[in-house]
Amino acid sequence: LYGNMVVGGSVVRRILDMRREGFDAAPMINFLENLKQNPSKRAVDELYGFLEATQLPITEDGCFLAYKKVRDDYMDLYTGQMDNSIGKVPEMPRNGVDEDKDRTCSAGLHFCSLSYLPHYHSGSGRVIIVKINPADVVAIPSDYNNAKGRTCRYEVIRSEEHTSELQSH
Question: What secondary structure letter does DSSP report for 120?
Answer without folding.
Answer: G
